[in-house]
Q: What sequence folds into this?
């Protein structure tokens, strides 16, 4: 993995496929009216499928990019030194683009297809996709006691309740573990331990019966990754490399820490604020790697979203069956029908009628978001090389956009989610 060097930007866009996406986005009721082009940036668009015709409000492909440029022009240098974005429509990437700098020490531009960001808990979606591959293969079952998969492992779940903890509980954060949000972050790469050792050292208490309440758990995702590794007699990192990253051509993605020196791409530096500017900070390492150590480019995350929006297919390959994808995107734990709930690995966003799923991610000085609208074949991924508190602290300075209200779709929650992703205030028109 190279550290950023100053380089020439590469701009290319397929206007036809973007127009098809915008029509689909319009069917969600979003009419983005940002008109100010943002600061020059690196962009790489990798088209993997044909265009599709979807009716809606958008007809001009420039509107979406103008809105994103407008928001990012305000973000860059104000709340973050750099950002990367991928937007897809089904099997087609619509916009993959980098903004700002990957490392302020060398002023290297962010490139969507080359600059690697730490994406934190967004990586849990990869982990639970790996679990579902095991379910398809018959080596795992969502409703079997996880201890049955641990065998001679030094890891086990205490049998302190009549009901066992299952993989379904792990994927919906309902195992009943105490919530230990700190995923064991270390500053020294030499302190990165094996996943099995970390699971033993970080064993949480079981404080409630499984399936009863949601308690967000990094430990649960780490345990799921360990079970995947044992089921396939390999390491978690090697499994996802061969069974997810390689089929999806995610050549710049890894859970390994530190990121291997021979890994393609350049690693974005985390940054901290210093007065009115940003300075590179020391990187940190997440011992509970299946819960949050993923590093990836926007182009790679576009491929992951494409597969989840295309019934598990990507190119000539298939990482999941269509039925399994539907299972992941369906509700597994309902706290109350009127509030957001958990799908499998995916969190539910918007109001109770919106089929919006995804995950956010945050390490010490990186922030990321992935959102899918499966009913409309739309996926959005954004990552920043600054901490969430920096992004949340300046929403009042963001440009705004308007959203038409389509009475047949939950557009208000949709546009609010886009505002959440971009950290921009959203104004809606009735």
A:
């Amino acid at each position: 993995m190279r550290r950023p060097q100053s380089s020439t930007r590469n701009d290319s866009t397929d206007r036809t496929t973007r127009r098809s996406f915008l029509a689909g986005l319009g069917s969600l009721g979003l009419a983005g009216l940002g008109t100010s082009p943002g600061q020059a940036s690196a962009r790489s668009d990798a088209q993997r499928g044909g265009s599709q015709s979807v009716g809606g409000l958008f007809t001009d492909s420039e509107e979406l990019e103008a809105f994103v440029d407008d928001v990012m022009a305000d973000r860059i240098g104000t709340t973050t030194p750099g950002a990367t974005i991928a937007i897809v429509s089904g099997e087609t990437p619509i916009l993959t683009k980098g903004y700002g700098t990957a490392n302020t020490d060398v002023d290297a531009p962010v490139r969507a297809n080359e600059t690697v960001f730490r994406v934190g808990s967004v990586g849990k979606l990869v982990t639970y996709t790996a679990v579902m591959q095991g379910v398809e293969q018959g080596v795992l079952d969502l409703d079997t006691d996880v201890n049955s998969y641990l065998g001679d492992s030094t890891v086990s779940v205490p049998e302190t309740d009549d009901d066992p903890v299952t993989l379904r509980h792990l994927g919906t954060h309902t195992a009943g573990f105490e919530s230990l949000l700190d995923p064991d972050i270390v500053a020294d790469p030499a302190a990165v331990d094996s996943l099995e050792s970390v699971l033993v050292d970080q064993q949480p208490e079981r404080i409630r019966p499984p399936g009863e309440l949601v308690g967000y758990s990094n430990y649960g995702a780490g345990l799921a990754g360990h079970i995947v590794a044992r089921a396939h007699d390999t390491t978690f990192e090697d499994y996802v490399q061969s069974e997810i990253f390689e089929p999806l051509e995610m050549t710049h993605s890894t859970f390994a820490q530190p990121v291997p020196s021979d890994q393609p791409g350049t690693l974005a530096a985390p940054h901290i604020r210093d007065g009115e500017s940003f300075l590179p900070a020391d990187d940190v390492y997440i011992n509970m790697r299946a819960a949050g150590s993923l590093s990836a480019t926007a182009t790679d995350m576009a491929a992951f979203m494409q597969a989840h929006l295309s019934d598990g297919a990507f190119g000539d390959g298939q990482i999941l069956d269509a039925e399994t994808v539907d299972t992941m995107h369906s509700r597994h734990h309902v706290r109350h029908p009127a509030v957001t709930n958990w799908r499998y690995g995916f969190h539910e966003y918007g109001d109770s009628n919106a089929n919006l799923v995804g995950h956010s991610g945050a390490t010490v000085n990186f922030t990321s978001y992935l959102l899918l609208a499966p009913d409309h074949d739309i996926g959005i991924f954004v990552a920043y090389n600054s901490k969430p508190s920096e992004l949340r602290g300046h929403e009042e300075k963001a440009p705004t956009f308007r959203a038409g209200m389509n009475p047949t779709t939950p557009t208000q929650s949709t546009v609010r989610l886009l505002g959440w992703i971009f950290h921009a205030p959203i104004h809606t028109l009735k």
About this structure: Confidence is low (pLDDT under 50) at residues 2-60, 393-415, 424-430. The chain has one domain: 81-423. Residues 62-75 form the longest helix (14 residues). The first strand starts at residue 82 and ends at 89.
